[in-house]
Amino acid sequence: MDDMRSPGDFKFSRRDLLIVGAASLTAPAVAVTTEPFVAKAEVVLKPAVPGAPVMSKVSFNVNGKTRVLEVDTRTTLLDALRENLHFTGTKKGCDHGQCGACTVIVGGRRINACLTLAVMHEGESVTTIEGLGTPDNMHPMQAAFVKHDGYQCGYCTPGQICSAVAVLEEIKAGIPSHVSADLTAAPQFSAAELRERMSGNICRCAAYSNIVDAVTEVAGSKA
Amino acid sequence: MKSFTYERANSPAEAAAAAARTPRAKFIAGGTNLLDLMKLEIETPSHLIDVNRLALDKIEPTSEGGLRLGALVRNTELATDERVRRDYGLLSRALLAGASGQLRNKATTAGNLLQRTRCPYFYDTNQPCNKRQPGSGCSAIGGFSRQHAVIGASEACIATHPSDMAVAMCALDAVVETVRPDGATRNIPIAEFHRLPGDTPEIETTLASGELITAVTLPKPVGGKQIYRKVRDRASYAFALVSVAAIVQRDGSGRVALGGVAHKPWRVEAAEADLPRGAKAVTAKLLADARPTRENAFKLTLAERTLAAVLTEARG
Amino acid sequence: MKFDTPATTNPIDQLRVIGQPVNRIDGPRKTTGTATYAYEWHDAAPNPAYGYIVGSAIAKGRINAIDLAAAKAAPGVLAIVTAENAGKLEKGSLNTAKLLGGPDIQHYHQAVAVVVAETFEQARAAAQLVRVDYASAQGAFDLAKLTDSAKPEKITGGPADTKVGDFAAAFAAAPVQLDATYTTPDEAHAMMEPHASMAAWDGDKLTLWTSNQMIAWNVADIAKTLAIPKEKVRLISPYIGGGFGGKLFPRADALLAALGARAAGRPVKVALQRPLMFNNTTHRPATIQRIRIGASKDGKITAIGHESWSGDLPGGQPDGAVSQTRLLYAGADRMTTTRLAVLDLPEANAMRAPGEATGMMALEIAIDEMAEKLGIDPVELRILNDTQVDPEKPERSFSQRRLIECLRTGAERFGWSKRSAAPGRVRDGRWLVGTGVAAAFRNNMLTKSAARVRLDSSGIVTVETDMTDIGTGSYTIIAQTAAEMMGVPIDKVVVRLGDSNFPVSAGSGGQWGGNNSTAGVYAACIKLREAVAQKLGFNSAEAAFADGQVKSGNRSVPLAEAAGDGELAAEDVIEYGDLAKKYQQSTFGAHFVEVGVDTATAEIRVRRMLAVCAAGRILNPKTARSQVIGAMTMGVGAALMEELVIDKRHGFFVNHDLAGYEVPVHADIPHQDVIFLDETDPMSSPMKAKGIAELGICGVAAAVANAIYNASGVRVRDYPITLDKLLDRLPEVG
Ligand SMILES: Cc1cc2nc3c(=O)[nH]c(=O)nc-3n(C[C@H](O)[C@H](O)[C@H](O)COP(=O)(O)OP(=O)(O)OC[C@H]3O[C@@H](n4cnc5c(N)ncnc54)[C@H](O)[C@@H]3O)c2cc1C
Ligand code: SF4
Ligand code: FES
Ligand code: FES
Prior knowledge:
The complex is a heterotrimer of chains A (223), B (316) and C (734). The relative contact order of chain A is 0.14. Chain A has helices at 8-11, 14-23, 77-84, 129-132, 140-148, 157-172, 191-197, 208-222, and strands at residues 37-39, 54-62, 65-72, 103-106, 109-112, 125-127. Helices cover 33% and strands 14% of the residues of chain A. In chain A, strand 2 and strand 3 form a beta hairpin. Chain C is of the alpha+beta class and 734 residues long. The mean pLDDT of chain C is 98. At the B-C interface, helix 12 of B face helix 3 of C. The structure holds flavin-adenine dinucleotide, iron/sulfur cluster (SF4) and FE2/S2 (inorganic) cluster (2 copies).
């Protein structure tokens, strides 16, 4: 992870985080009829009013900072980031796992933030595009996207970049792909590998050819 | 999405018991299928039991020389495991052919088996669908059915099961291990795990209510050439039109299962005897009772041609 | 500034900044997630409520009754707006169907209500509780059944029908003939950012943060719909997550955010949920196209006829699929016709290169088929039938037309001469390999465009225009234009776009944005240069602007000094005379594609792609290249997978999400090469540039189709070309 400019979230120890989670272990025992019902994340019981939102406390680390939130159990990690925490970088393109615009890195693995609940991430570490770099201090992958024009409208871009950063780690970690010729050998970086692995990130502007150039440059400079 | 209460289970038995205790409860693992459907209110659980922190995320050898794959092993981990890659390449290949890197990082062994159909009418709550709303009718019959089943379907439903992983597991004779709310465990051979739609397409597996999948076991490796061939219009991030999972031994014998053609992975052991005679003979038996629609009849040709290519590759 | 005589040498020709492959100036924001899209204006209107749209469950009919009781009682609900309680709404002049349906329903998923609640989760859940009782009516959903009743209807830039000479006689007499019918399906824009808006009212004034390509059009139409004065509507849209024509007009998110905010007394934001978008918004209409070509044995086209049918809602418009056939190839006797059927499917409208995109899909297969009939190489056949004048009005010549050079350059670069003309001959492992070519053609459109340019005392040049950047690179080419004109480095230029408080620009559509908006900035800069020269005591005709200095003779003064005692500002608009009438202005190109067709499964994968474009001055080769590769990819989608599948019983697009409506992913697209011919077009504007963003899609799909034929020997005339259409006609596996 040395290549990451602000990898605080990756370094954050899990034990530190759990303390925050443990602090919220006591739940209010009585549900108030009209107020949203708040409980600890471990067991959230039924509110008195049918259909009323069930609220839950959850805390996780985003880009190196612990965040404690009180969310509707229905809130996805994506909406928690966008609507509760006001991160603008993680995008909603489909809300159904079909586009990759919401890609974030959780515990070192890229996932679709739209298909996971915020309450399921108690104590975990999330890296969003904002955690990789800033306009004045860009991550090498962000800089390579700018240099190679690996985007147009920019809407899929944070997801593409988070994915690309994680893809290089996945290849390094020996995770094979659909196009790896030999399953038992360690996968090697190639354009074909990259295209297959990046296919969960749709770009309708179709900067694909340029994205491959950008990621290839970063992969090369890492080796 | 309807409101629901949420709990994080601490042990498999406790999870199953919680499910039995709470009406309209559901387990949530990766969430990649369940949340998709909950957003559209196709699934409306009132209570979610988060099983992610159960210690079911290991891949361990069995005493029979096979592997036990924990229910919560992520699809990425499963596809990457050295033993799986070496001895059950078919499974690794099938997993890697499915979904996207992001989804595979979340999707679990159990969740993948239990994912529901991608029939577009099932997904559109304005349309009649027997699987979603028993008795309302099947919109796919007489509608857009290019992706649908060509065999084993019924008047009530012609949906396919979308999993790639399950097709490989079917060819590998996997066994699904479960625990019931009363603590009893059982082993379900994969061939008996998924059901054909019949008159009750809403019932998709032989799991009882509250029954929790704890693992899938693979018998001891059978060797052979293992090939998973998934055919689709788009090169990646697309469900199979047809897929072929084949294990071919040096003497030409072997096993074949098809994906994308039925409500479950499709395997007919009697057809496998014909493997040495080639794809035509095998598919003739495998798909003998096929009743395709006008829009998906091409799947019969496609299955045969794909199998032929797979057998050529296996011999080469 | 009136542009009515051909451009001569001007400051743009210096090419110090213009024409350079400058990185996008909005890049650092877009790549770090700090660019603010419509749903993300957290500081502008804190604590907004959330709107969630309910779409019609039927395609045609009426709402008998809506029961809102359960939804209203749901937790967090603040307001529900339906046609019944919205007050009187006009239909926007740019919309064919109403944005809020009821009691009449015009198409599936037409919005019938918006539920506003404290949170997104609450709004979504409550929307499910809205009970609508419909009376469904019979509708027309099958274009193929309506070709006889379809009516002539004029297309953008021309009449429904054109006719030169006697097509029928010439065709009948031609020794070599082709008569073939092609179909293209309904297609979706599927831009990655869903339509989204946030609305806030301040008294009777509405502010909409939205995602829209055409600011002024939308101010006017939103005002019209709400029956309020235009001056009361402010639109802000600096970042747009793709549009492709799908965000030209107001959509339900904007109107319902405005109505929801009024009803809730709070800012409200609404994004169209992805599964609603495909039926709720507009799409590229399906076409049926009959093409007849007659030629002499040596390949000269003598007769060319193109008839096109498409459908739309009552009052809608046809696809202009015949437009390029009026201009692309020579041939003395010719005809085109356009027929429009009335369908009750969702609204058909513009999508990237409307007209030429679909027309070229058909015409360029037809040319390939003719080439085969004639035994002439398809590159050569196109060259043989090139015309330097408008074939329907030979007195008009093209302002620039270098189609032949595009074809020759591409053939050379692609290695076309190595191709086997006979299909089905090349094998690479499991792949049958083939190559295909198609011409690219798209008209260049001129529309007026204004900008304001300001100079401050630190030498910063600020450009303001309501132009939008939908991924096209407007920010960057506008900055380059101002930098070139004012003689400053690009980092001294600030560009502010997408705000209705700024001068009205051409907007983004029809590939007219780049040339016209920069020409507007050019005009404003000319004025600012005059003001600067006057202020500093220079003769403006002689003053040179370079290196942050204004120079004349041996006197040189820092530019910033002109604003020493106060900012200088200038505003102007570029307007056009009749050069576009006197000269036909079009952009040209050639596409070369190599595909593999799997011998067993008939899966089709693109292996190589090259486009050569002649489109006037390329203002920024980096961003222009991106436009072209994006368009090429969309063309691959059109060729191989994109189709909104109609349920003809119930009248809706069935595959209405991004898993069902497949667009190309990374793995579908190989490395793409783009070559720009070095060209300037003095008839187009002082920039001497033309459009590029849509040229790139025109012809690609046909080049793919022709490559598939060359690989497999199977000719498919119905798009998309999916494997099931080839399978039965491939050789046995073995
Ligand atoms: C866009 C997209 C494309 C996809 N493409 C493919 C593809 O090409 N091929 C493919 O195979 N799949 C594909 N998938 C599906 C994906 O593989 C499944 O969503 C995933 O495997 C489900 O696993 P999960 O752990 O997320 O399940 P969840 O969503 O958590 O659960 C699914 C179901 O399983 C139940 N469940 C979970 N764990 C247990 C347990 N231990 N015991 C009992 N019940 C349990 C849940 O209650 C729920 O009903 C795709 C998905 C998406 C969104
Ligand atoms: S095929 Fe099955 S899932 Fe699809 S509409 Fe028919 S009943 Fe529903
Ligand atoms: S928004 Fe999550 S995949 Fe599209
Ligand atoms: S940059 Fe627009 S979708 Fe990728």
